[in-house]
Structures are given as C-alpha cells and as structure tokens.
Amino acid sequence: xxxxxxxxxxxxxxxxxxxxxxxxxxxxxxxxxxxxxxxxxxxxxxxxxxxxxxxxxxxxxxxxxxxxxxxxxxxxxxxxxxxxxxxxxxxxxxxxxxxxxxxxxxxxxxxxxxxxxxxxxxxxxxxxxxxxxxxxxxxxxxxxxxxxxxxxxxxxxxxxxxxxxxxxxxxxxxxxxxxxxxxxxxxxxxxxxxxxxxxxxxxxxxxxxxxxxxxxxxxxxxxxxxxxxxxxxxxxxxxxxxxxxxxxxxxxxxxxxxxxxxxxxxxx
Length: 268
Hints:
By secondary structure, the protein is an all-alpha fold. The protein has helices at about 5-15, 25-35, 50-85, 90-120, 130-135, 135-150, 160-185, 190-210, 210-225, 235-255, 255-265. It is built from eleven helices and no strands. Residues about 35-45 have low confidence and may be disordered.
C-alpha cells in the first residue's frame, strides 16, 4: 500500500513526465497503489489523544483537499491536452470524451479519497506533506502557460470546419478557466463534489444549445452571401469571428451566469 510520501511523489511525477492523454488511467494507477496489498500497520497512539487527534484531523483535511485539487487539475490538464492534440476530431466527439472521462474520474476520486482516509488512519501525515503538495501547483501553472501560448486552431478551409473548430475551443477554454481558478486559489479548501458539479454545469451549458447556436450562425452565413469556403464572405466571417471572440472573453472572465445565457442563445 502506498505511503503518504509516495502519494506526493506520484503527483509530482505526473508533472515531471509528459502529461498523460489517458487521464482515466492516471486515476486508476493511483487508486491501485492505494488499495493494493501491503503490511498491516497499527494505528497511531497519541500522547494527548483529544488535542493531537484534533490537530491531525485538521491536517488530514488540508492534505486530502490538496490531493483532491491536484487530481482535479490533472484531469483538466489531461483533457485540455487531448483537445489540443486531436484537432481533427469533431467537437461533439471531443465533448463526449470529456463527459465520459469526467464521470469515471469523479467516481474514482471518491474512491481515492476513501482509500486515503484509510491510509491516514494508520500512518501519520508528515508535517511537510501539505507544503510539498501545494508546491506542485507551480508545475500546473507552467503547464497551463504552455497551453495558453500555443495556437488555438489550424487552417479551416470551410465554414463548417471553422465553426466546429471554434466550438471545440470554447469547450477547451471552459476547462482552462476552471484550471486557472484552482491553480491560483491558495486560501480555500478544495471541495471536490462542488467543483466537479461546477465543471459539469459549465460544459452542459455549452452543449445544451450547441446545435441551435451553430445552426443559427450557418443560417446567418448563408443569408449574408457566404458559400462553403470561408473566403467567400469576408464581412460575414468578421461577424462570426467577433462572436467567438466575445464568447471566449465571457468564458475567461468566469462569468458563469452570463456564459450560460449566451450558450443557450438568451444573449446576443
């Protein structure tokens, strides 16, 4: 069975190695390490049970919260990387991939948390473990910056390709915005169920009116004189380009309520 230090080392290795494109496999690996067979270790006996146990409970909660955060960030990094390296896939295929992975990883994170609780019942948490885990967020920042400075999309010769590419970018930016929020947040404990639900709400807001939104943009494109090629209607192209620029800005500002209205077509 993994030790607390091995858990921290595992999370660090995720950043030392290239970010996995199989984020479900990452969660499986950690869960396997935590639930594998190992020596039976007797419970820790504290000289002052009440005071020491209270201190340990608080320390445990901080560490578990930080591990939850690290796994959530790893999920986002893995999915964003997948988006950026599979640009030939249609946006709905990419969305279904994220939706599936989110469901699986959320369930596994609950199992990992339970396994860590059992581990910490018998192994004392090192006083420096939280600091080591928090420091790992620096590696997430480096990975995030690298993702932000890379190109958003390649050449898109047709209007269908252009809209599909930009819809995929919208989904990716939703995940990037959540990632950025929790890399930068140093004060609050990470409540995994709440944040998984928040991410799902944001992605569902995008998906709820995807077909209607794309259909309306295509209708506008045709009505304004556009053909199949994006070079056939410069004025229409500029309008659609400006629409996505504004949509991305809304996502990156983190204004969830406004984003949901825009994604649902309730805002121009």
